[in-house]
């Protein structure tokens, strides 16, 4: 992975965490932007991961939210309910896929499997 990709991914993670923390405290962007001394537009860019956040702002956010800085940097944890939702959706999609593909000729099925493997390999590399 290149540095730009890693930075963009980190910026999105941090931005999502900031947004989640703000919303969980029923704060508006305007209120939080005032506290960390940035414009509402800049905070929106940060929360969407389109702009990085400074170390000073991370420290301020940590104090405002009363959480450790590293919790703003970490990827959100997967919850049990999230896994169950994912499994339910996977089962539904499996049934739909089977209904669409069970009558395909072998050559077309082999091509479909080849394409799916390529997609999965690409996703897993990220």
Report on this model:
- The chain is mainly alpha-helical.
- The chain has 2 domains: 3-73, Orthogonal Bundle (434 Repressor (Amino-terminal Domain)); 80-125.
- It is built from 7 helices and no strands.
- Helix 2 packs across helix 3.
- The radius of gyration is 21 Å and the shape is elongated.
SSE layout:
Blueprint: H1 3-24, H2 29-36, H3 40-47, H4 55-65, H5 69-73, H6 80-101, H7 106-125
Question: How many helices in DSSP terms?
Answer: 7
Let me know the CATH homologous superfamily of the largest domain. Answer: lambda repressor-like DNA-binding domains
Arithmetic mean of pLDDT: 80
Distance between the termini: 7 Å
Instruction: Characterize the biggest β-sheet.
Output: none
Oligomer: single chain
Reported by name, the CATH topology of the largest domain is: 434 Repressor (Amino-terminal Domain)
- State the secondary-structure class: mainly alpha
Reading off the top of the CATH hierarchy, the class of the largest domain is best stated as Mainly Alpha
Q: Determine Rg (CA atoms, Å).
A: 21 Å
Characterize the overall form.
elongated
Q: How large is the share of residues in beta strands? A: under 5%
Instruction: Supply the number of structural domains.
Output: 2
Which second-level CATH architecture of the largest domain applies?
A: Orthogonal Bundle
String of helices and strands: HHHHHHH
Attribute tags:
126 residues; mainly alpha; 434 Repressor (Amino-terminal Domain); 2 domains
